[in-house]
Specification:
heterodimer; A: about 60 residues; 2 helices; about 25% strand; globular; B: about 25% strand
Protein backbone atom coordinates (compact mmCIF):
# COMPACT_ATOMS: atom_id res chain seq x y z
CA UNK A 1 0.00 0.00 0.00
CA UNK A 2 2.87 2.38 0.80
CA UNK A 3 4.48 1.47 -2.49
CA UNK A 4 1.26 2.35 -4.33
CA UNK A 5 0.64 5.76 -2.76
CA UNK A 6 3.16 8.36 -1.63
CA UNK A 7 0.89 9.52 1.19
CA UNK A 8 1.25 6.15 2.88
CA UNK A 9 4.17 4.97 5.00
CA UNK A 10 4.29 1.39 6.25
CA UNK A 11 6.24 0.07 9.22
CA UNK A 12 6.76 -3.60 9.99
CA UNK A 13 7.52 -3.59 13.70
CA UNK A 14 9.07 -6.45 15.63
CA UNK A 15 6.96 -6.23 18.78
CA UNK A 16 9.16 -8.12 21.22
CA UNK A 17 12.17 -5.88 20.58
CA UNK A 18 10.22 -2.69 21.25
CA UNK A 19 8.08 -3.25 24.35
CA UNK A 20 7.43 0.49 24.60
CA UNK A 21 5.63 0.43 21.24
CA UNK A 22 3.88 -2.84 22.05
CA UNK A 23 2.57 -1.26 25.27
CA UNK A 24 1.63 2.04 23.66
CA UNK A 25 -0.43 0.29 20.99
CA UNK A 26 -1.71 -2.45 23.32
CA UNK A 27 -0.31 -5.27 21.23
CA UNK A 28 -1.60 -8.41 22.92
CA UNK A 29 -1.63 -10.59 19.81
CA UNK A 30 -0.04 -10.53 16.37
CA UNK A 31 -0.36 -9.53 13.67
CA UNK A 32 -1.82 -6.27 14.87
CA UNK A 33 -2.13 -3.31 12.54
CA UNK A 34 -2.50 0.28 13.71
CA UNK A 35 -3.38 3.07 11.27
CA UNK A 36 -2.67 6.70 12.20
CA UNK A 37 -2.71 5.74 15.89
CA UNK A 38 -6.50 5.39 15.57
CA UNK A 39 -7.69 2.33 13.68
CA UNK A 40 -6.78 -1.11 14.97
CA UNK A 41 -7.00 -4.33 12.99
CA UNK A 42 -6.39 -7.59 14.84
CA UNK A 43 -5.19 -10.70 13.08
CA UNK A 44 -4.97 -11.47 9.40
CA UNK A 45 -8.15 -10.58 7.54
CA UNK A 46 -9.09 -10.69 3.84
CA UNK A 47 -7.52 -7.99 1.67
CA UNK A 48 -10.83 -6.30 0.79
CA UNK A 49 -11.75 -5.86 4.46
CA UNK A 50 -8.25 -4.82 5.42
CA UNK A 51 -8.05 -2.07 2.81
CA UNK A 52 -11.57 -0.83 3.57
CA UNK A 53 -10.97 -0.68 7.33
CA UNK A 54 -7.46 0.74 7.10
CA UNK A 55 -8.35 3.60 4.78
CA UNK A 56 -11.74 4.59 6.12
CA UNK A 57 -10.38 7.94 7.38
CA UNK A 58 -7.75 8.57 4.71
CA UNK A 59 -9.83 10.10 1.96
CA UNK A 60 -11.05 13.67 2.37
CA UNK B 1 28.44 -20.00 7.66
CA UNK B 2 25.16 -18.98 6.07
CA UNK B 3 22.00 -18.55 8.13
CA UNK B 4 20.03 -19.98 5.20
CA UNK B 5 20.05 -23.57 4.04
CA UNK B 6 21.28 -24.18 0.47
CA UNK B 7 17.68 -25.03 -0.53
CA UNK B 8 16.34 -21.76 0.90
CA UNK B 9 19.13 -19.82 -0.78
CA UNK B 10 18.18 -21.40 -4.10
CA UNK B 11 14.49 -20.59 -3.63
CA UNK B 12 15.27 -16.98 -2.79
CA UNK B 13 17.65 -16.71 -5.75
CA UNK B 14 14.84 -17.85 -8.05
CA UNK B 15 12.35 -15.40 -6.52
CA UNK B 16 14.77 -12.48 -6.63
CA UNK B 17 15.53 -13.26 -10.29
CA UNK B 18 12.10 -11.76 -11.04
CA UNK B 19 13.26 -8.37 -9.79
CA UNK B 20 13.81 -5.85 -12.57
CA UNK B 21 14.77 -2.76 -10.57
CA UNK B 22 17.61 -2.34 -8.06
CA UNK B 23 16.69 -1.97 -4.40
CA UNK B 24 18.88 -0.43 -1.73
CA UNK B 25 18.28 -1.45 1.84
CA UNK B 26 19.27 1.41 4.13
CA UNK B 27 20.28 -0.24 7.39
CA UNK B 28 20.14 2.18 10.31
CA UNK B 29 22.35 0.91 13.09
CA UNK B 30 24.54 1.88 15.98
CA UNK B 31 27.33 -0.19 17.45
CA UNK B 32 26.16 0.33 21.02
CA UNK B 33 22.80 -1.28 20.36
CA UNK B 34 24.35 -4.70 20.53
CA UNK B 35 22.74 -8.00 19.61
CA UNK B 36 19.76 -6.86 17.53
CA UNK B 37 21.91 -4.77 15.17
CA UNK B 38 24.55 -7.49 14.89
CA UNK B 39 21.92 -10.11 14.08
CA UNK B 40 20.25 -7.78 11.54
CA UNK B 41 23.62 -7.22 9.86
CA UNK B 42 24.13 -11.00 9.60
CA UNK B 43 20.71 -11.46 8.00
CA UNK B 44 21.16 -8.59 5.55
CA UNK B 45 24.60 -9.86 4.57
CA UNK B 46 22.92 -12.91 3.07
CA UNK B 47 20.90 -10.94 0.53
CA UNK B 48 23.33 -9.35 -1.98
CA UNK B 49 24.81 -12.79 -2.69
CA UNK B 50 21.36 -13.93 -3.81
CA UNK B 51 20.62 -11.05 -6.20
CA UNK B 52 22.65 -8.40 -7.96
CA UNK B 53 19.56 -6.18 -7.64
CA UNK B 54 19.91 -5.93 -3.84
CA UNK B 55 22.43 -3.70 -2.09
CA UNK B 56 22.85 -2.96 1.61
CA UNK B 57 23.89 0.50 2.76
CA UNK B 58 24.72 0.96 6.40
CA UNK B 59 23.66 4.27 7.95
CA UNK B 60 25.02 5.37 11.31
CA UNK B 61 21.99 6.20 13.46
CA UNK B 62 24.01 8.54 15.69
CA UNK B 63 26.18 10.35 13.15
CA UNK B 64 24.12 10.52 9.96
CA UNK B 65 21.38 12.78 11.29
CA UNK B 66 20.30 13.96 7.83
CA UNK B 67 19.38 10.48 6.64
CA UNK B 68 17.83 9.58 9.99
CA UNK B 69 15.55 12.62 9.68
CA UNK B 70 14.89 12.12 5.96
CA UNK B 71 13.64 8.59 6.52
CA UNK B 72 11.93 9.32 9.85
CA UNK B 73 13.85 6.71 11.83
CA UNK B 74 13.63 6.94 15.63
CA UNK B 75 15.04 3.59 16.74
CA UNK B 76 17.34 0.81 15.58
CA UNK B 77 17.80 -1.61 14.02
CA UNK B 78 15.67 -0.12 11.24
CA UNK B 79 15.47 -0.65 7.49
CA UNK B 80 14.23 1.65 4.74
CA UNK B 81 13.81 0.32 1.21
CA UNK B 82 14.80 2.62 -1.63
CA UNK B 83 14.45 1.89 -5.30
CA UNK B 84 14.75 3.97 -8.48
CA UNK B 85 12.27 5.85 -10.60
CA UNK B 86 12.27 5.58 -14.40
CA UNK B 87 14.95 8.27 -14.65
CA UNK B 88 17.23 6.44 -12.24
CA UNK B 89 16.69 8.84 -9.33
CA UNK B 90 16.28 7.34 -5.84
CA UNK B 91 12.69 6.63 -4.91
CA UNK B 92 11.78 6.03 -1.28
CA UNK B 93 9.28 3.15 -1.10
CA UNK B 94 8.17 4.36 2.38
CA UNK B 95 8.44 0.75 3.49
CA UNK B 96 10.24 0.45 6.83
CA UNK B 97 11.21 -2.39 9.12
CA UNK B 98 11.83 -1.82 12.82
CA UNK B 99 13.65 -4.59 14.66
CA UNK B 100 15.51 -7.68 13.54
CA UNK B 101 14.01 -9.06 10.29
CA UNK B 102 13.97 -12.70 11.39
CA UNK B 103 11.26 -15.33 11.09
CA UNK B 104 8.00 -13.92 9.74
CA UNK B 105 9.62 -10.52 9.43
CA UNK B 106 12.19 -12.04 7.07
CA UNK B 107 9.36 -13.35 4.89
CA UNK B 108 7.86 -9.86 4.86
CA UNK B 109 11.23 -8.36 3.99
CA UNK B 110 11.62 -10.73 1.03
CA UNK B 111 8.12 -9.78 -0.20
CA UNK B 112 8.89 -6.08 0.21
CA UNK B 113 12.16 -6.44 -1.71
CA UNK B 114 10.30 -8.19 -4.53
CA UNK B 115 7.63 -5.50 -4.66
CA UNK B 116 10.15 -2.67 -4.61
CA UNK B 117 12.14 -4.51 -7.27
CA UNK B 118 9.26 -4.48 -9.72
CA UNK B 119 7.32 -7.63 -8.85
CA UNK B 120 3.56 -7.24 -9.30
CA UNK B 121 1.64 -6.04 -6.24
CA UNK B 122 -0.74 -8.50 -4.59
CA UNK B 123 -3.41 -5.77 -4.39
CA UNK B 124 -6.47 -6.42 -6.52
CA UNK B 125 -7.28 -3.70 -9.09
CA UNK B 126 -10.22 -2.56 -6.90
CA UNK B 127 -8.05 -2.25 -3.80
CA UNK B 128 -5.29 -0.60 -5.78
CA UNK B 129 -7.80 2.08 -6.81
CA UNK B 130 -8.89 2.54 -3.17
CA UNK B 131 -5.29 2.91 -2.09
CA UNK B 132 -4.58 5.35 -4.92
CA UNK B 133 -7.39 7.59 -3.67
CA UNK B 134 -5.71 8.20 -0.29
CA UNK B 135 -4.87 11.89 -0.10
CA UNK B 136 -3.92 12.44 3.52
CA UNK B 137 -0.76 11.32 5.35
CA UNK B 138 -1.36 7.76 6.49
CA UNK B 139 0.89 5.67 8.70
CA UNK B 140 0.40 1.92 8.84
CA UNK B 141 2.17 -0.02 11.59
CA UNK B 142 2.05 -3.80 11.47
CA UNK B 143 3.22 -5.49 14.67
CA UNK B 144 4.45 -9.04 14.53
CA UNK B 145 6.79 -11.43 16.28
CA UNK B 146 9.46 -13.72 14.78
CA UNK B 147 7.50 -16.91 15.47
Amino acid sequence: MAFANEHITAYAVEATEFPDLARKYRVTGVPKTVINDQIEILGGIPQDEFVAQALVNSQL
Amino acid sequence: MSLLSPADQEKLRESFAEMTAPVRVLFFTQTLDGEACVQTRRILDELPALSDKIAIEEVNFVLDKDKVAQYGIDRVPALALVTQDAAGAPRDTRIRFLGTPAGYEFVSLVQALMLAGGHASSLTPENRARVAAVNTPTTIQVFSTPT
